Amino acid sequence: MGETFVFTANTRMRLPLAGLAAATAVVLSACSGGSGAGGTSGTSGSDDTGATAAAAPTIKISPVKGSAKVRPDKTVVVTAANGALEEVTLESDGEQVEGEFDETRSKWVSKRPLRPSANYTVSAKASGDGGPTTATSQFTTLKPKVELAVADVTPGVKGETVGVGMPIMVTFNQAVRDKAAVEAALEVKAQKPVTGAWRWINDKLAIYRPARFWPAHQTVTFTAHLAGVKAGTDTYGVEDHTTKIKIGAAWVSYVNVKTHMMVVKRDGKTVQTMKISAGNGTTREYTTTNGIHLTMERGNPVTMISPGKKEGDPGYYKEIVNHAVRISSSGEYVHSAPWSVGSQGRANVSHGCINAHPTQAKWYYDNFHRGDVVKIVGTNRALEWNNGWGFWQMSFSQWKKGSALKSQGQGQGQEQEQPEG
């Protein structure tokens, strides 16, 4: 095999053919430029020293951008990878929805249902070693086939002051199938908190009652956070509702049928003592009911007709009475009875009502509030818990069994089987 010679600038060298490739590589290396044939600083994430640069955070939002007919009870979830969430905003028409981060701030979840038929915008910002990242998303919630709303709250008259026994009675415009979900959205806040619970009377009516009478002289706020709550198949709450309830003084009337007396106390102080005449007790209908009554409404005058009888029947009556305050649905009132003044304080001659002297009956009528307490003793007929507003006839432990929630009894305070007087 022949020899190949490679010449440098000053010296002639003779090398074997096998060493030609190595020598050629050395020469080319000495003559190549400094940029490199395949530089990777812009494509592989490495910096000038060759170290790999940190990736920027990525943000994922659910529901995805452009989603329509999103269920209002669906939670909005925002997650971040390669970084931590700094802030998340979820809003519709300027109203923000609260949410909470997990411990690592890698996840944010909305806390309340969304409003139906609404457009929502989500804005998120995350930061990490790779720098900050922002993301936005827009979606629309569905329009429910059946819209649930509060139809009535009692008490709900603007400016009204009510008694310490007053329950909160909420009527809905639609039948509620998922009572637990709706009940969980009902909030009662009192300036002087007590323990209380809801009881479902039927599919449309729920009633809140404390374990004890409300502390006097305060404001109670009822809020139904209904917007977006799923109450049944294709049924969602469409709007929230708030009612403020003013609790006045503790008016409690004590009626003793056997002694024919009625004592009225305001915040524990006696303000009126009245001679009365109660039901004559000849029939069940004419027997005044025992137990804790609440004043419900008043009228002047009120026409009273014998129950279950028509004109011409034995015992039929139709009387017009003045200054009447209702205390049950079965026809019991505290009212003026000038015809029985001679019996008041001495004998029971009424058809079941509490007869009082016209002057004192008017005083009682003028000082009446819905939800004031009337405690009656001395007869053998008990007031039914569902006769009027006889809800205090039921112990609180029994009352809260009507709740749809497993955790029953809301608020602060000590539970008591029998309410305070």
UniProtKB/TrEMBL annotation:
The keyword Acyltransferase applies. Pathway: Cell wall biogenesis; peptidoglycan biosynthesis. Residues 251-377 form the L,D-TPase catalytic domain. The keyword Transferase applies. The active site is at H335, C353. InterPro entries: Big_10 (IPR041280), LD-transpeptidase (IPR050979), LD_TPept_cat_dom (IPR005490), Transpep_catalytic_dom (IPR038063). Pfam families: Big_10, YkuD. Residues 402-421 are annotated as: Disordered. Keywords: Acyltransferase, Cell shape, Cell wall biogenesis/degradation, Peptidoglycan synthesis, Signal, Transferase. Residues 1-37 form the signal peptide. It comes from the Bacteria. PANTHER family: L,D-TRANSPEPTIDASE, L,D-TRANSPEPTIDASE YCIB-RELATED. This is Ig-like domain-containing protein.
